[in-house]
Amino acid sequence: MLVESGIISYRQYFPVDPNPFISEKFIELNRYKVDRVVRLVDDSSQPVIGLVAGIKNGILKSPFSAPFGGFHFRKENIYSGEIDRFLQLLSDYAESLLLNRIEIITPPDIYHMTFNAKMVNSLVRQGYQPALPEITNWVDLTRFDGMFRQKNSREYYRQAQRNNLVFSVAQNEREKGIIYDLICENRSKFGRPIYMTLDNILSTGEIWPVEFFKVESGKNIVASAIFYRNHNEICYAVYWGDNDEGRPLRAMDFLLLNLFVYYKEAGFRYMDLGISTENGIPNEGLLRFKESHEAISSLRYRFILDIKKS
Question: Residue 279 sits in which domain range?
Answer without folding.
Answer: 138-299
